[in-house]
Amino acid sequence: MLKAGGTLLLSVVAPLPASANQILAVRVWPAPEYTRVTLENDTNLKTEHFLIPDPPRLVVDIDGLGLNPTLKSLVAKIESNDPYIKQVRVGQNRPNVVRLVFDLKAEVKPQVFTLAPVAGYQHRLIFDLYPVTPVDPIAAMIESGEWSTGPTKTVAVGTPALGDPVSGPPGATMPATVLPPSGTVGPSTAAAAAAGAIVAATPPVQIPTPPPVAPRTQPNAAPDAIARLEAEISGLRGTPPAQAVQPTPGRASARQPQKVARMVTIALDPGHGGEDPGAIGANGSREKDIVLEVAKRLKTKLEQLPNTRVMLTRDGDFFVPLNTRVQKARKVQADLFVSIHADAWVSPTASGSSVFVLSEKGASSSAARWLASDQNRADLVGGVNLAGGSADKQLASVLFDLSTTAQINDSLKLGKAVLREIGGINRLHKASVEQAGFAVLKAPDIPSILVETAFISNPQEEARLNDNGYQDQLANAITNGIRRYFADNPPMAKSRQT
């Protein structure tokens, strides 16, 4: 045993026979939020681990295990840019006991747990190393953001801010092709690009604004209540309240659509990651890689719009539990949540794009129900510590109960706008937005959609998903859909801090 003074932590599992077990694979997933080390083995393992503070180390003793080349290869898998692990040492501490010593770059809060076999994996022993002070998603978003705070940033000629009228003649719809029963593949890249250019080339439309109504005639005078609240806060701070600017009657500005000058925050959620590869195409493409690339392209395009900032639930190849994705979006007070995926089916002929929103009353189709059930298994594959799962389950239940009809209605509006745009670059698997009980869409106060970009199980669509041009078209289509949604549903005013 090492010197006393290290904090002793135990993970007790069933006892093992004296014969040594085998490590089958080792994997390391470094990320700013946490680093995960996975030991895949042929049976469940008994472990003890403890921390030593000076210098910071994590010591793990694994019982019933012998050294083999696979386990020794863990040493070479630690990267120099790992945020938390400096190096790891592996040795036979005593007969049938292997000791791992992680030399750390800073103090950590480790979680050590096991996962039962699932989805092609055998037993897994997991070490999750979290920082003592968790990463602040708002600070991380600000640090990685490249957004514009005004309309001066050059994007495309005539690009409006979110909430401005978007291009397209009155009543025009983006051409959308619905998947026929034969399941044929969508339009070519060139044709899709031409279709997508129709909207960009059309002059902007001014959305008519109803005549102003005197505030005294409104049944709920929310502005007056806000003004009184601001006056009370200003009184407590000892500063005079801000005076509202009264518009001059008859000025042209009074006829313009009212805008809210604040940052709009959009949460983008590339599905899967880390231990969870998502669906895998016939040619070996992994869903987690494709959707991350699409999300990064989409982030770049959205941040070119004035007053728009974007948070990625993951910006690298690591796993994020489903409820954590929702929590991240809520912590940054996101106005929208867009989860990005690539569909898969048992038949390679299935094709087309889809958009889903939450349903409280059951799925809109059997396929939607199956897909939601499959996506909700991500935590089993990606690996979640069930020791603290009771609180997570309670949170998920509360979030579901709080999911209001208003949130679902707003999600449907967003979904329809995005589906309309995607229909211009790919066939639609269904002509309408579908609904099912997706766990990742259960933020009660954020309009949320899940976009299935295409079928990675279809060889032709798998090739398109790997094409840079098609990824750009997807990012453009989703961006235009979000702009259309905000043109009809301008973002509401928030606290001045946001």
How would you explain this protein's 3D organization?
The protein has 498 residues and is an alpha/beta fold. The protein is built from 13 helices and 15 strands. The strands form three sheets. It has a six-stranded mixed β-sheet, sandwiched between helices. Helix 6 links the parallel strand 10 and strand 11. The protein starts with 6 loop residues before the first strand and ends in a 10-residue tail after the last helix. The N terminus is likely disordered.
Secondary structure layout plus pairing:
Blueprint: E1 7-11, E2 23-29, E3 35-41, E4 46-52, E5 57-63, H1 69-72, H2 74-77, E6 85-94, E7 97-104, E8 108-115, E9 123-131, H3 137-144, H4 189-201, H5 222-237, E10 264-270, H6 287-303, E11 308-312, H7 322-331, E12 336-343, E13 354-358, H8 366-375, H9 378-382, H10 389-402, H11 405-422, E14 434-436, E15 448-455, H12 459-465, H13 468-488
Helix pairs in contact: 4-13, 6-13, 11-13
Concise description?
The protein is an alpha/beta fold and 498 residues long. It is 30% helix and 21% strand.
CATH architecture type of the largest domain: 3-Layer(aba) Sandwich
Shape: globular
Q: What is the CATH C-level name of the largest domain?
A: Alpha Beta
Structural class category: alpha/beta
Q: Return the CATH topology of the largest domain.
A: Aminopeptidase
Spatial order of the strands in the main sheet? Answer: 11-10-12-15-13-14
Low-confidence segments, given as residue ranges, are 1-18, 151-159, 169-258
- How many DSSP-defined strands? 15
The CATH superfamily of the largest domain turns out to be: Zn-dependent exopeptidases
Q: Over all CA atoms, what is the radius of gyration?
A: 26 Å
Portion in beta strands:
15-25%
Question: Helical residue percent?
Answer: 25-40%
Number of domains: 2
Mean pLDDT, as a whole number?
Answer: 76
